[in-house]
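Before relying on records like the one below, remember that each one covers exactly one chain. Contacts with other chains, cofactors or solvent are not represented anywhere in the record.
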Amino acid sequence: MAYYFGFVPSDELKKLIKEAAEAVASDEYVEYYPYRDALTHKTARDLIDNLLVGLVEIIPNPERQASMRKIVGTIERSADTLLNILLGKENNEEVLPSFHFLRDRATFTDNEGVSRVGFELSENAAQKIVEGFAAVTPDDVDMSKFKLALETMNEETLTHFITRYAETLQLGLIKRKSVPVAKAAIDKGMSMALNKLLPDLPIDSLNRLANYYRPFIIEKAD
């Protein structure tokens, strides 16, 4: 069996995926980079929405909700800033590796035949995530395992959609060096969100949190 992380794209992202595919397949000359840039920005926003924005409603404390919204806003701005630095006008041949990554390495079909944005998890990461979610039950929660699962999921997601994706871009030395710096800043924001969210949550809230994330982990036959 193999495990994947993935979410169902928004209608806007579905539209952009289709438009980008049609542009690349077209016999007419069009510049690919505007499609690539729009698709990348929207993928990042959908990813943040699924990982973090949906959590706000789970938080029972209004003060923590407000704090969480501020953190999410900071992460969104950090992601937009990074993408604005990395993306820009390139010729079609230079853009194609990014399209191929988004098409071949950042989408998959789940067991119900639904197309998702995501990727296959490593065996080690999948084990930590599955064990962490299994450690959350209505009667008991192993916080260390659950937190490790969430941290692992976040790290794997950032590595795939930032580090691996950036490898497909034509970047100079300065821009290339900005990638791990920006990834670290976004990772810090997500860690801060978890650290503000998890402490003192009652068992029922922790179960809602685990149930929120469980549908993102898909088990498929090899």
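The two ends are 5 Å apart (CA to CA).
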